[in-house]
Amino acid sequence: MTNRDEVLNILKGFTDPATGSDLVASGMVRALSVEAGEVRFVMEIDPARAQAMQPIKVEIEDRLSALDGVSKVSIVMTAHAATKPPPDLKAARPAEPKGPQKIPGIDRILAVASGKGGVGKSTVSANLAVALAAEGRRVGLLDADVYGPSQPRMLGVSGRPASPDGKTILPLRNHGVTMMSMGLMTREEEAVVWRGPMLMGALQQMLTQVQWGALDVLIVDLPPGTGDVQMTLAQKAELTGAVVVSTPQDIALLDARKGINMFEKLGTPIVGMIENMSTHICSNCGHEEHVFGHGGVAAEADKLGVPLLAEIPLSLNIRVAADGGAPIVVSEPDSAQAQAFRTLARQLITDGNA
Ligand SMILES: Nc1ncnc2c1ncn2[C@@H]1O[C@H](COP(=O)(O)OP(=O)(O)OP(=O)(O)O)[C@@H](O)[C@H]1O
C-alpha cells in the first residue's frame, strides 16, 4: 500500500515554476492525507497562477492514481493568503492538555526504572506483571525500551501488533498480561536512532492509541538512565509512582540515585527500590554468595528515605525462565524466587500502588 512518504517523493519530483523549488519545499502542499486508498491534499497557490498550475495538477493526479492501492486522488487548489497563515488543521482540534494527564481506563501507572542498564529491570517488570495478574489484577505492560525491547521475548509473544482501523493498535497478550512494546513498532533488523521528538510521539501513541482496555495498573518498563522517555512519561502521564531497580554494586547504586533524583524533580513519587541479583544460592551445593555485594540497596534506600520493596536473588532459574518466555512466577510458581515476586506484588497492591 502506498504511504505518505511515497506520495511526498512524487510531489518532490515536480517543480513550482514560480520559485524553481520542488512542490513540497515550496510549501504549497498542505493537509496531505493518505487513508484507505485515498490521497488528498490542498495546493495553496496565488490565484493568478491557478491556470498555469492546472496541467501540473492533472499530471500529479495521473502519477498518484497509478500508485499501488490508490483508488482516488483529490487535489484542491486554494488561494494562498499572503496576509494570513494557512489554516492549520490541527488548530481545529481541542488544545493539547498541559501537564501530566490521567490515561482513560488506566487506574494506575507504575514506572519501573533503573539508572544503569542490565540490572534486571525488564526481568523484574515481567515477573511483577504476571505476579499482579496472579493476584487478580488487570495488568498492562508497556515496554518503553526502544533500544533493547525485551518484553516480547520474556513474555513469550511474537508477531507484530495489528491496527485494523489504522488508528488504534491492538496489544498482545500472554500469561494474563496485556503487552505492547515500542520495539515492535520498528523492524527487528532496523537500527533504532530515534530523536527526542520521535520518542515522545511514539510514547504518547503507546499510551493513548493502544487498546489497553480497563486496567488496574499499567507497568512501564523504562529504558535505563534518565533520558527523553523518562521525562516524557512523567510529564505527559499522571504516574502513581516509580520503582527503581538496582544491583547492590556501588556503580549501579550511584546511577540509581541519579534516577531517583530525576523522578523527584519531575514530581513523581518514588514507591521504593528493589535489589536485584541480591544474593546467589548455588543450585548444586546451596552455598550462599553475595556476588555483587550485599545490603547495598537496603542501605541506600534507608539513606534516601524510600522503602526497600524486595530483594530478588541472583538465580539461574530466573534467567532461564525469562529467556524462555515464561517468567519464573508462572513457570515455577512455588519456587522461593517466584514467591519473592508474589510478595512484592501483594505489597504494592496493599499500598494502593498496583
Ligand atoms: N535475578 C536474576 N537472576 C539471574 N539473572 C537475572 C536476574 N535478573 C536479570 N537477570 C538476567 O540478566 C540479564 C539482564 O536482565 P534484564 O534484561 O532484565 O535487564 P535490564 O535492566 O532490563 O536491561 P536493559 O538495560 O537491557 O533494559 C538477562 O539475561 C536476565 O535474564
TrEMBL record:
Boundaries of every MIP18 family-like domain copy: 4-75
Example of a GO biological process term: iron-sulfur cluster assembly
Transmembrane residue ranges: none
InterPro entries in alphabetical order: FSCA_dom_sf, MIP18-like, Mrp-like_CS, Mrp/NBP35_ATP-bd, NUBPL-like, P-loop_NTPase, YlxH/NBP35
Molecular function as annotated in GO: 4 iron, 4 sulfur cluster binding; ATP binding; ATP hydrolysis activity; ATP-dependent FeS chaperone activity; metal ion binding
Superkingdom assignment: Bacteria
UniProt: ATP binding residues: 115-122
Function statement: Binds and transfers iron-sulfur (Fe-S) clusters to target apoproteins. Can hydrolyze ATP.
Record's subunit section: Homodimer.
Family per similarity comment: In the C-terminal section; belongs to the Mrp/NBP35 ATP-binding proteins family. Belongs to the Mrp/NBP35 ATP-binding proteins family.
Name of this chain's protein: Iron-sulfur cluster carrier protein
Gene giving rise to this polypeptide: minD_1
